[in-house]
Amino acid sequence: MSAGEGFRLADAVADVYGDLRLEPVLRRLLRHTARLTGAAAGSVSLIDAAAGRYTKAAEYGAFCRLGDTFPLDEGATGRAFGRRRPVVIPEYGQLRAGHLDGADPKRRGPAAAVPIWWRGEVIAVCVTFAPRTGTFGAQAVDDLETLTQTAAAAIVRGGRFGRSLASVLRRAGTVVTEAGEVRPVAPEVARVAAGLVADAGERLRVGIVYRPDGVRVMMRDETGGSAWAAAPPTITGGEVTVERVRGWGVVLRADIPYASPAPFTAREAEVLELMRQGLTYREIASRLGRSPKTVEKHVGAIMRKTGASNRTAAVVTAMDNGWLGDSPHTAFG
Predict the structure, then answer these.
(1) Does residue 79 fall inside a structural domain?
(2) What was the pLDDT predicted at 85?
(3) CATH at residue 287
(4) I need a surface site. Which of 33, 216, 231, 237 has the fewest CB within 10 A?
(5) What is the per-residue pLDDT across 64-80, written as a single tens digit (0 to 9) for each?
(6) 3-class DSSP state for residue 81?
(7) Orientation angle between helical segments 311-320 and 292-306, nearest 10 degrees
(8) How far apart (Å, rounded) are the C-alpha atoms in residues 272 and 305?
(9) Quick one: 16 and 70 in the same domain?
(10) DSSP structural state of residue 136
(11) Of 95, 125, 104, 99, which is closest to residue 33 (Cα–Cα)?
(12) What Rg, from alpha-carbon coordinates, does the chain have?
């Protein structure tokens, strides 16, 4: 089948939205970009504009340093983000700070990088390598932009659910099993669990139990030499126990809440919810019966507490941490 033959945008969009967890969304998007263009490989990177970086979140057909984080001025992603429009790179290998392996033949072919927008900001960039036609014409780039942009809401919604904790820990080479209804977790939960794994020995087994109010992570270090025994870790809002079990090694049990307590006042929480709905300062003021100046002060406090540089980033941070009332992290708990 030639590039684009038999491709139906409506079918592709329905498939992308069929599972609103972030990883399936990105995998499906890449599968359809390959069908659309006949491309040999592709990747999607998630943008953190406030931090000036992006992370390779999904890929196919190439080893493009999946999971690594880069400055926003690097690679095809950096070029598309900087120009705020789709870009075509005639020969990827000539790009400064590209991330394909030096021996990869796709470096000698073209690449197209397409920004994905949400509420006026670039939230991701999809890069497609080496189409079968050998070039990216204007129509191919337009079709790519149409397809990738339809996934914007799915990426935002999928990002709210976070990554699978098991997938994060398995990247470290550990053996992981799960029990209960598997639930995506907030980024902070994943960071805490990954830190516990990093402190362990080489022979580590991990069990994850999803409970109503949080996740229980059980780790067994068969070498008995982990740092847990010498200095048991602590978790904000959670509990950790460590014991030596004869014949088993060191066993750690960590109960981690799905979300940390929200840092906002009641009024700030109201303002944040209306920000999530996309209301302007004046609309929020009208809804709450307050002046726009008062609303601006509340928004300023929200920005400081989330560490965000703009309203969209503040809302996304609150979602990631389960601080919004209908956030999946708190709803699951």
Answers:
(1) yes
(2) 94
(3) 1.10.10.10
(4) 231
(5) 667 778 888 888 999 99
(6) helix
(7) 50
(8) 12
(9) yes
(10) -
(11) 125
(12) 22
Determine the 3-state secondary structure of 186 from DSSP: coil
pLDDT of 328 > 50? The answer is: no
> Are 13 and 25 spatial neighbours (Cβ–Cβ below 8 Å)?
no
- 112 plus 229 within the same structural domain: no
pLDDT at 164: 64
Tokens of 277: 């709905």
Task: State both tokens at 83.
Answer: 């120009």
Whole-number Å distance between alpha carbons of 32 and 239 = 44
Average pLDDT over every residue of 323-333: 41
Give the CA count within 13 Å in the CB-facing half-sphere of 144: 31
Question: What is the enclosing helix (H) or strand (E) of 7?
Answer: none
Query: Model pTM?
Result: 0.51
Nearest by Cα to 190 from 224, 155, 166, 221: 166
Both structure tokens of 156 = 């935002």
What does the alpha-carbon distance between residue 43 and residue 30 come to, in Å, rounded to a whole number? Answer: 7
Domain count, the chain: 3
Question: How many residues comprise the chain?
Answer: 333
